[in-house]
């Protein structure tokens, strides 16, 4: 039965894929389906990509919730696009080397069920994901046990009680919480719990803190950062409640992790009545050791294992390590009675010595570790003296190692070792199965993480934004803090470009510490390597990954963990994948910045160096090039001195826009200056320029040009000689508001060889304005309307008495306001004005 639904539509745009992923992720997390979010996001990404990118149609996404799972439907408007079928002799459609069929291949691999449905107008691809089974706890009573077997607790037991409101902020904080964590209530009330919680951040594994706070009941381990900055391991029990007004909140009970027995749900045992009504069955050795129900996650199973092993042999501590895939190292995954957070995910070699006692592949009993220092690296400086270690094996393959230790020497014999080995044999298969399940969830979570990371990195070409994204994607998901070093060239030292810490108040301090440490060496070998130089300055574990792009080290990605934590190998592999994508994105941003800088430098070389000051004349120029990042286009202008008392000016428009038009712009402007200073008149200058343009052959472009010479006169007027070659006519504004054309139209340049041009002379009297524009002004459009020559004339009539700068500004404002859309054509405005004599002069 459908209990909830959510739907959204996405336009056929590339960014819609990320929006669809976010929609599905938010919807499923809101429904409390965190266990299947990653699979749903990956499948949605592929299927929406097929719709909006490949099919080119709008995608409609529908999420349907039921009691035991979710169904997601993606519909596009390309129903005639059939399923790829396999024909004899062809490769199957679900082939990773082929472009099509990948979405369906993922459906077949990840979904519980999936299918394709066609209608006359739509194609629906749907998939269903079932929720994993979750064991339900029951009430129970424990048996009477001797006092010596009771769990340990402080003489004054303290249970921290927190209440979290609907916005995930702390609304209540009792006295025991103040004592355990060191914060006064007023320091934490109103802060999100996530700011204090050191929650496991492995993508795709376990439940995140936000999801845990949405569940009706949750129990497990995590850490709380105390007032002194240390992470305090706690065992917590969360219960979601509602008040009389129906407002939900979460009551959290927290104790020290070594006092978890105060809150931990008891093991379910059968009642006497049920035993009488059912047939007896043989006891499962695994359940005898672990208890029933067994934890449904790997970390819970491992923690239960070490606790039972410790209790079984009355030990002071116990530990469990899992083998890496190549069986060369063991990774610490669970401990009790030891500084667990400090040792978690630390690695030790499988073969630590030459004899059988130095190998984790065989059981070993050490009567006194003081006599064989280094025999068990995990127990160094812990006070443990006697220890048993036994291997966990599945089908003859080493999968882990289980050990117990005591503070007194000579505590254990071969008999205890046999008991522990028997227990290890019972739980080895279950541990390996849970480990493989965790790896599969991690793989799927990593795939979802990398899909979103790639999408974010591909969405920007800004170097600083790329650096920020790199750091924000790693903290806190992969590391506690991150530093990015950039390398300008092979001869440069790494430069500390960006620093991020999950606690924003520590960013400045971390940056200061790193600035006093020599940067890591830029090594070309891929993969994470330790960076011991930070151990004293920063503390904790630090690894460095090279940022390799186009066979060059362009930077270094540095990840750090606090002293009590270690990196998991799976996290380092995910960080390596991310570093490759981030390096390419960073190098693309660098190349884009370099090309942009070159482009701007070349474009600025085509602009006039500046307008000269002309005695007795006001001159104003406004220039706008069309297109993002363009400073020069097909329109151009110039005002320059020819000789004493004579100045040249030009305003023109090359056919088209962009770099090709800008090339002809540069030719025209430089040729005009050169020819004018040779003493040639206006017609001769333009005729020679026409020949130069035609000599360019296929690269030539026709252009319109208004060229003139300006001669200031002793009486305050200005004599002008102009030639208008196919250009919009210059307009003359008199002080009485009359506007008239100041020249006659003549043929444009770059079309025919033989031009017969002539020069026209006019005199600008005091108060007169000469306005010259390109067709980007007169051809400004809004739908079917166009500003035109009449519109420009109307604007100019309102400019009487204004300076040249004010006239040009008013014309520009009128053009911009004529239409709502940005201008799509280049635009140049050149205004001359002869100022009127001041009254009383």
TrEMBL record:
The keyword Hydrolase applies. One of its GO terms (biological process) is regulation of DNA-templated transcription. Transmembrane segments: none annotated. The keyword ATP-binding does not apply. Residues 161-191 form the PAS domain. This is GAF domain-containing protein. It holds the Pfam family GAF_3. GO terms for molecular function: phosphatase activity. InterPro entries: Bact_Sigma-Reg (IPR052016), GAF (IPR003018), GAF-like_dom_sf (IPR029016), HATPase_C_sf (IPR036890), HATPase_dom (IPR003594), PAS (IPR000014), PAS-like_dom_sf (IPR035965), PAS_fold (IPR013767). Keywords: Hydrolase.
């Amino acid at each position: 039965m459908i209990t909830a639904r959510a739907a959204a539509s996405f336009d056929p745009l590339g960014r819609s894929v990320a929006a669809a992923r976010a929609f599905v992720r938010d919807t499923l997390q809101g429904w409390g389906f965190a266990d299947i979010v990653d699979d749903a996001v990956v499948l949605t990404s592929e299927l929406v990509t097929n719709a909006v990118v490949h099919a080119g149609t709008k995608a409609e996404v529908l999420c349907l919730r039921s009691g035991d799972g979710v169904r997601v439907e993606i519909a596009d408007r390309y129903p005639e696009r059939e399923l790829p079928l396999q024909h004899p002799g062809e490769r199957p459609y679900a082939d990773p080397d082929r472009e099509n069929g990948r979405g369906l291949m993922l459906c077949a691999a990840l979904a519980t069920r999936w299918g394709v449905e066609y209608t006359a107008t739509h194609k629906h691809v749907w998939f269903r994901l079932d929720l994993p089974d979750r064991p339900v706890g029951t009430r129970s009573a424990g048996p009477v046990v001797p006092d010596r077997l009771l769990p340990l607790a402080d003489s004054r037991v303290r249970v921290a009680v927190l209440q979290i409101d609907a916005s995930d902020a702390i609304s209540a904080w009792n006295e025991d919480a103040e004592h355990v964590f060191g914060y006064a209530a007023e320091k934490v009330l109103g802060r999100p719990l996530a700011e204090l919680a050191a929650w496991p951040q492995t993508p795709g594994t376990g439940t995140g803190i936000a999801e845990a706070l949405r569940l009706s009941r949750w129990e497990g381990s995590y850490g709380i950062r105390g007032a002194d900055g240390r992470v305090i391991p706690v065992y917590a029990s969360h219960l979601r409640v509602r008040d009389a007004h129906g407002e939900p909140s979460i009551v959290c009970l927290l104790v020290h992790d070594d006092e978890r027995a105060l809150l931990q749900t008891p093991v379910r045992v059968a009642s006497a009545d049920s035993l009488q009504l059912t047939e007896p069955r043989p006891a499962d050795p695994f359940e005898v050791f672990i208890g029933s129900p067994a934890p449904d996650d790997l970390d819970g199973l491992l923690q239960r294992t070490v606790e039972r092993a410790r209790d079984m042999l009355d030990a002071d501590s116990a530990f469990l390590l899992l083998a890496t895939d190549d069986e060369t190292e063991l990774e610490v995954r669970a401990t009790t009675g030891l500084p667990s957070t400090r040792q978690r995910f630390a690695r030790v070699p499988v073969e630590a010595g030459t004899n059988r006692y130095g190998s984790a592949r065989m059981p070993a009993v050490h009567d006194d570790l003081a006599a064989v220092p280094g025999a068990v690296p995990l127990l160094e400086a812990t006070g443990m003296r006697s220890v048993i270690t036994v291997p966990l094996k599945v089908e003859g393959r080493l999968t882990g190692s289980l050990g117990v230790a005591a503070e007194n020497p000579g505590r254990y014999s071969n008999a205890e070792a046999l008991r522990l080995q028997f227990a290890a044999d019972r739980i080895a298969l279950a541990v390996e199965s849970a480990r493989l399940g965790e790896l599969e969830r991690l793989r799927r979570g990593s795939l979802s993480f990398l899909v979103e990371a790639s999408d974010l990195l591909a969405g920007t070409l800004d170097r600083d934004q790329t650096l920020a994204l790199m750091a924000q994607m790693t903290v806190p998901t992969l590391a506690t803090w991150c530093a990015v070093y950039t390398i300008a060239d092979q001869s440069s030292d790494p430069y500390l470009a960006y620093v991020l810490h999950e606690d924003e108040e520590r960013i400045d301090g971390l940056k200061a510490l790193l600035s006093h440490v020599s940067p890591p060496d830029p090594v070309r070998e891929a993969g994470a390597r330790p960076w011991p130089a930070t151990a004293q300055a920063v503390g904790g574990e630090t690894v460095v990954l090279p940022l390799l792009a186009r066979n060059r080290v362009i930077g270094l990605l540095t990840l750090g963990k606090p002293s009590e934590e270690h990196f998991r190998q799976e996290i380092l592999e995910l960080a390596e994948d991310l570093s490759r994508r981030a390096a390419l994105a960073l190098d693309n941003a660098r190349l884009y910045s370099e090309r942009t800088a070159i482009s701007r430098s070349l474009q600025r070389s085509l602009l006039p160096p500046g307008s000269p000051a002309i005695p007795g004349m006001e001159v104003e120029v406004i220039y706008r090039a069309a297109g993002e990042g363009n400073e020069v286009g097909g329109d151009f202008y110039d005002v320059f001195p020819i000789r004493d008392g004579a100045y040249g000016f030009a305003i023109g428009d090359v056919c088209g826009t962009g770099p090709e038009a800008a090339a002809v712009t540069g030719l025209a402007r430089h040729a005009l200056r050169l020819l004018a200073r040779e003493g040639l008149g206006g017609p001769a200058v333009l005729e020679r320029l026409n020949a130069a343009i035609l000599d360019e052959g296929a690269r030539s472009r026709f252009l319109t040009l208004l060229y003139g010479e300006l001669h200031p006169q002793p009486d305050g007027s200005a004599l002008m000689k102009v030639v208008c070659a196919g250009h919009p006519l210059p307009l003359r504004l008199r002080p009485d508001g009359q506007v008239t054309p100041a020249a006659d139209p003549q043929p444009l340049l770059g079309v025919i060889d033989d031009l017969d041009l002539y020069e026209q002379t006019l005199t600008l009297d005091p108060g007169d304005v000469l306005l010259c524009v390109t067709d980007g002004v007169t051809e400004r459009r809004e739908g079917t309307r166009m500003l035109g020559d009449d519109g420009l004339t109307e604007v100019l009539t309102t400019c009487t008495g204004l300076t040249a700068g004010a006239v040009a500004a008013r014309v520009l404002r009128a053009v911009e306001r004529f239409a709502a859309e940005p201008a799509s054509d280049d635009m140049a405005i050149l205004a001359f004005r002869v100022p009127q004599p001041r009254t009383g002069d």
